[in-house]
Amino acid sequence: MPPFPTIDPVPVSLVGTVPDEAADRAPPVRQGVAIDREVLTGDAEVVAPWLLNKVLVRGGRSGRIVEVEAYAGRDDPASHGYRGQTTRNQVMFGPAGHLYVYFTYGMHWCANVACGDMGECQAVLIRALAPMAGAEAMWEDRPAARRTTDLCSGPAKLCQALGITGSDNGADLIAGDRGIVVLSDGCAPPRRPGNGGRTGIVVATERPWRWWVEEDPNVSRWTPRV
Question: Which domains can be identified in the chain, with CATH numbers?
């Protein structure tokens, strides 16, 4: 498959380390600087649209965040933390800036950024990425994809494309302790992002806590608006 087109080249500093897995032996992609953990201590519905256009990097693979959803813990019946802390959801309770990975439908991993103050249990689900680097590895792990825009156009797809699994649960996305980081390359969040209800849930569907980058072809197909 062809490599990805060049997207917003920027001067950068190297953040994070490289995991030992063979698929990720390439050096981390030099695409930005670490974000401020303090920003992530805000409420999920504030942090989520702010994360748009940040860059998620794992080893030699990366993508720009173009779609997100917010989950507000004990105040949100659609959240995994609604009924309190468990072994499964403990990463959601903080500290902010860590990766919460969960298994869904018995076959897929999904990745979230923990946010809010310690103990609040908030998170932002990363729903879609615009691929930036690591084309060969992404195509290898997403053989069902038929075009570049299929690689990361959904939460399970992007985890497959970047090789994110349950072993990455709890990774520090600021310090990069496991080779996974969220970076800023200077591309600001859109001033007027797309906005609508969350998908894949059956409660609290009225909350407009889903945001995406308008006109980006990598956004998942389900995009009802408020």
Answer: 22-212 (3.10.300.10)
